[in-house]
Amino acid sequence: MKNIIYYFSGTGNSLRTAIGIAERIGGAEIISVRCDVENVSAETAEVIGFVCPVYEWDMPGTMKRFVENLKINPNAYIFMVATYVAIHGKSFETMEKLLSAKKAHLNYGFALHCVAS
Ligand SMILES: Cc1cc2nc3c(=O)[nH]c(=O)nc-3n(C[C@H](O)[C@H](O)[C@H](O)COP(=O)(O)O)c2cc1C
User: Fold this and answer.
1) How many domains does the chain have?
2) How many angstroms separate the first and last alpha carbons of the chain?
3) At what angle do helices 61-69 and 91-100 cross, to 10 degrees?
4) Enclosing domain of residue 43
5) For ligand 1, what atom is nearest to the CA of residue 9?
6) How far apart are CA 12 and CA 90, in angstroms?
7) pTM over 0.85, yes/no
């Protein structure tokens, strides 16, 4: 089974979260979204994770643009973890909209409360 977790992290909370999830699901490629999206396709992945902070009640723009341009397997199990300190806002709704445009769907979302960093 091919597991991929794409992450964006400014101060480390989301990266630490992505690493922890990868360990618990039996391993995953952990890929920063600050890369060329053309080189990191998820077309053959069976489990796809997105982990990022909440910025201004939503997903960071870098993560949005990455997902918009990412090629994915629409039949994969797709999850998102959003790290936040106070209000997680509409991150999951935004992700679902982006995935719907690719005929894929968010199967699971979790808002992880973190310390402000
Ligand atoms: C520019 C910016 C905007 C943020 N906006 C929010 C927000 O709207 N709601 C919230 O709960 N936390 C907000 N935070 C806090 C981060 O979501 C939180 O600290 C997160 O865990 C940081 O993850 P990271 O360490 O992976 O970058 C914001 C942080 C930054 C830097």
Assistant:
1) 1
2) 34
3) 20
4) 3-113
5) 26
6) 21
7) yes
Mutation probe of ligand 1 site: the residue of 13, 55, 91 with most atoms within 8 A of C-beta: 55
The residue written with tokens 């997902």 in the block is: 67
Closest CA to 72 of 29, 37, 97: 37
> Using a 6 Å cutoff on CB, does residue 57 contact ligand 1?
yes
Q: Quick one: CA dihedral 57, 113, 5, 3, positive or negative?
A: negative
Q: Specify whether the CB–CB gap between 60 and 52 falls below 8 A.
A: yes
pLDDT in tens, the chain (117 residues): 799 999 999 999 999 999 999 999 999 999 999 999 999 999 999 999 999 999 999 999 999 999 999 999 999 999 999 999 999 899 999 999 999 999 999 999 999 999 887
CB of 115 within 6 A of ligand 1: the answer is: no
